[in-house]
Write a structure and sequence with these properties.
Layout: H1 14-25, H2 29-32, E1 40-41, E2 44-47, E3 50-53, E4 59-62, E5 71-74, H3 77-96
Antiparallel strand pairs: 1-2, 2-5, 3-4
Helix pairs in contact: 1-3
GO biological process, one term: DNA recombination
Keywords: DNA recombination
Organism: Halalkalibacterium halodurans (strain ATCC BAA-125 / DSM 18197 / FERM 7344 / JCM 9153 / C-125)
Length: 121
Amino acid sequence: MKNYKLQRFEGYQLYYMLMYFLSQTGLRISEALALRWTDIEGNKVTVERQTSRDNNNRLKLTTLKNTSSYRIIRLNDDLLRELKKFKLKQNELILSDKRFQKNEEGIMFQNYLGNLLYVNR
């Protein structure tokens, strides 16, 4: 996964970072895809939303299903280091390539158009 390269944006290791993040945190993919950079404070991430589909099959951010799903998870040093590199690359692409759009909500795992990633089920 680490060697997989997006055709348009070499060095933007979106899928590697997502898989690594999921493996280190145990989050559901719908929770990880809804995370914003502001959800990380120090070495912790706050989980308080998820992605889901509306009646027209459009992707949206929603609240979690029950109160026990709201939680704070500690991030290890290796994951934090990788996240910092990923964010730097993301910001570099936003600033240097007009094709790479910024997600206005600060979503961590955005595609190059600035949209939420979605999972086909």
